[in-house]
Amino acid sequence: MLVHIWFGFFAISFVTALYQWLVNGQAEIFAQLVQSTFDMAGLGVEIAIGLIGVLCLWLGFFRIAEQAGLIQILSRSLEPLFLKLMPEIPRGHPSHGSITMNIAANMLGLDNAATPMGLKAMQDMQTLNPSKDTASNAQILFLVLNTSSVTLLPITIFMYRAQQGSADPTAVFIPILLATSASTLAGLLAVSYMQKLRLLDKVVLTYFAGFAVLLSALASYLVNQPPEHIAATSSLLGNLTLFSLIMLFLGYGWWNRVNVYDAFIDGAKEGFDVAVKLIPYLVGMLVAIGVLRTSGVLDGLLVGIEYIISTLGFNTDFVQALPTALMKPLSGSGARAMMLETMSTHGVDSFPAMLSAIVQGSTETTFYVLAVYFGSVGIRRVRHAITCALIADATGITAAILAGYWFFH
């Protein structure tokens, strides 16, 4: 499926560019497309280079925790759940630890830690994969959970809203939590249907109930805080957790007589190798996304959606936030730019800007995550991963729109 989608991006962009030239008289469109390919190719390399430091840092710390046996201890908290959802991964396998750390980092909004741990999890699962160029069931479920991951503390969105002068930067917290929870649930249901997983299992249901209680408790605590304190509390909690985790890795390793420096260097070397391997996959995906955006496909799609919605007689106020929604599965930076543009144009506390922020926090960047995670282990056949991830995206965006109307319209 990936090869068809990738080719389709170029084919649709070319047809749209021909229309722009022949009908709208935009002869410069092809020059813009070519420039876009160069720009996005450069961006792919920049992103990979930017990841080198983060990957070296966190895979270095992770290696210390592995050698000290700490990861195995931490993995026991979620291992019973993973044994049900990922039955091909045996008890005690290293991937349980890296998956646990990735999910925890995602839930706390710790992007800098979540990506390296996610790549480590992919590598660990790849050791069990009988077909090295084809995604396994466990890898697909893990990827979908990452593209739709529940983020308990969307700190960056709070920060952007505060920078734009919002009277209540954290007003979107509960709507984002609802939207991202819906996205994750939809992704899990889609994968479970494709893989015939049994979700109505007492172990699975017990964990889900625990997660629900955790979400409710956190939401209740933050909602009762003064608005001006929520962003600061969220930031403090996230950063305190992150540095405490570093000290836990180092302290536990040192206590167990691990040569923490040598272990860190070994892990950091692995991080460098992973970052370099990502470059071809990032360039390929980002160039395809760049030409799709430059050709005007997304703008045309937006006009078409607005026309259909207005024809059907429905309220179209949400359409102003759709640029963020359309860009979100394709480009994180593009979606962020669309959100900021909406805030600037309509006002940070306007309905379109509020809705745009909710959409931004509802899901992850599907095609970027797919390129990075699968690219890190050389997977080319993604099977049902894209279908399930896009189902999660569509559900998250729909839930974001509904939550926006519920809270702010």
Number of strands: 0
Shape: globular
Count of domains? 1
Oligomer: single chain
Helicity range: over 70%
Return Rg in Å.
Answer: 22 Å
Number of helices: 18
N-to-C terminal Cα separation, in Å?
A: 39 Å
Instruction: Tell me what portion of residues adopts beta-strand conformation.
Output: under 5%
Unreliable stretches covering 5 or more consecutive residues: none
Q: How many strands, what sense, and barrel or not for the largest sheet?
A: none
What is the averaged pLDDT score?
A: 83
Q: Which H/E pattern describes the elements?
A: HHHHHHHHHHHHHHHHHH
Specify the structural class.
Answer: mainly alpha
Could you please describe the fold and organization of this structure?
The structure is a single chain. The protein has 409 residues and is mainly α. The protein has one domain (2-408). Helices cover 77% and strands 0% of the residues. The chain contains 18 helices and no strands. It has helices spanning 2-22, 29-68, 70-75, 79-85, 94-107, 111-126, 137-147, 155-163, 173-195, 202-223, 227-255, 260-294, 297-311, 322-327, 332-346, 351-362, 366-375, 385-408. Helix 1 (2-22) runs parallel beside helix 12 (260-294) and helix 12 packs across helix 17. The radius of gyration is 22 Å and the shape is globular. The two termini are 39 Å apart. 48% of the residues are buried. The mean pLDDT is 83.
